[in-house]
């Protein structure tokens, strides 16, 4: 709010979804341009906000294209948070993927190894992973 007093011309960020929605409301009310780069599942038009992050719908289409191009018949989707499943729900429900056997597994750093072992036992070699960036190295350790 102090920045507004000093004559701020635009706001960049934040990446946090809750804080981002709050900042958007303030910028919208004060007619201040707002640039952000974060996942936002709300596709509502915003007059003073531009989100530089690709729309989840487009990312899911890209996943579908890759899966079709590589002829995947089985895939495991490993997600860490419920939010990860919400993001990928269109990928799971897609008509394009009806011929693809999809296995969903929620995992965290403590359960990566067990989940990966289960996936391996089902002879699934294709994975889509949605995890926090700071936990990716734990996931990769579980793979090896």
Automatic annotation (TrEMBL):
Stored InterPro entries: ANF_lig-bd_rcpt, Peripla_BP_I
Which key words are in the record? Membrane, Transmembrane, Transmembrane helix
Q: Which residues form the Receptor ligand binding region domain?
A: 1-141
Q: Does the keyword Membrane apply?
A: yes
| Record carries keyword Cell inner membrane | no
Any single Gene Ontology cellular-component annotation: membrane
Query: What's the protein name?
Result: Receptor ligand binding region domain-containing protein
> Where does it live in the cell?
Membrane
Q: What is its main location?
A: membrane
- Which is an annotated Pfam family here? ANF_receptor
Organism from which the protein derives: Timema bartmani
């Amino acid at each position: 709010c102090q920045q507004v007093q000093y004559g701020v011309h635009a706001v960049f960020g934040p990446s946090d979804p809750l804080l981002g929605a709050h900042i958007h409301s303030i910028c919208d009310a004060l007619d201040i341009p707002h640039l952000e780069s974060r996942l936002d599942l709300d596709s509502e038009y915003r007059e003073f906000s531009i989100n530089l992050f690709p729309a989840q719908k487009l990312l899911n289409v890209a996943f579908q294209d890759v899966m079709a191009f590589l002829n995947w018949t089985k895939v495991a989707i490993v997600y860490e948070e419920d939010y990860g499943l919400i993001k990928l729900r269109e990928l799971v429900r897609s008509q394009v993927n009806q011929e693809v056997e999809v296995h969903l597994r929620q995992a965290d750093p403590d359960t990566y190894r067990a989940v990966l072992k289960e996936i391996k036992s089902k002879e699934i070699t294709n994975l889509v992973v949605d995890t926090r960036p700071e936990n990716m190295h734990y996931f990769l350790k579980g793979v090896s």
